[in-house]
Amino acid sequence: MAAFLQQIINGLSLGSIYALIALGYTMVYGIIQLINFAHGDILMVGAYVGFLAVVYLKLNIWWAFFLAVASCSLLGVIIERIAYRPLRNAPRLAALITAIGVSLLLENGGLMVLGTDIRSYPAGTINNVQLPITLMGIPITVTTLQIIILAVTIAIMLFLQYIVRYTWAGKAMRAVSYDSDAARLMGINVDNTISVTFALGSAFAAVAGILLGLYYNTIQPLMGIMPGLKAFVAAVIGGIGLIPGAMVGGFALGIFETMVSGYWSSKMRDPIVFLLLILILLIKPAGLLGKSNTEKV
């Protein structure tokens, strides 16, 4: 039972990172029905901006978060305006292929500029201490980094819910998601709303990138590929296009993955994750929180 609870704690930490990445996927998809496959590579950029801020600018980790969020938000807006906006009225396949192209550009550009060396955040970047606790009479270990990851994820989720429900920008996002043409007729600037959505999603990816770099203590230019794909799986599991679905899917996937690693084999966790995606699409394509819509033709 102690090992089981420990795997749950580890799964919540990993799932929190997946949930942050999945939020970016689901926000963009909910607005313009696009799977932004470059999202995982924006995570990589955020991880490196944080690393450079800590190592070369000698800033603390919180200022590193701020610079990474600002840089990746700007990058997300630039990508949307250059790569996706000209294809707004094109077939979805064209935008999807463009997203893959942007992803490859960021990955190979990262390899050219940053090299292939694996880097690590300096020791002491964050005070990571093991905290022995007792849960239901069972002793387990929680680290301060795990607590920070979970707390940051919950705080961002609450912040996003506030934005979506109570701010003008959030109301504009919901209107554009429901009917972009009607929103435009009501005076909403659809292009600016989509840019804000990309900026927010990219900011969450930046936070996830730094947390992932601290969690595994390694960063490299291709680090965003697998977490990006798994976060997409998490978004589908929870119900892509639904913000609570991204959180539920992220936590569920993180726990599922750590259970597979702990009780079976770490080599099997990636194949089993994508097998889970296939099963979800076969059994409940709309995801755990999604609802199937019937379309009359």
From TrEMBL:
GO molecular function (one): L-isoleucine transmembrane transporter activity
Domain of life according to the entry: Bacteria
Topology versus the membrane: Multi-pass membrane protein
Record GO cellular component, one term: plasma membrane
Pfam entry (one): BPD_transp_2
GO-annotated biological processes: D-alanine transmembrane transport; L-alanine transport; L-isoleucine import across plasma membrane
Annotated TM spans: 12-32, 63-84, 93-115, 135-164, 194-216, 231-260, 272-290
Alphabetical list of InterPro entries matching this protein: ABC_transp_permease, BCAA_transport_permease
Subcellular location as annotated: Cell membrane
Keywords carried by this UniProt record: Amino-acid transport, Cell inner membrane, Cell membrane, Membrane, Transmembrane, Transmembrane helix, Transport
Family: Belongs to the binding-protein-dependent transport system permease family. LivHM subfamily.
Protein name: High-affinity branched-chain amino acid transport system permease protein LivH
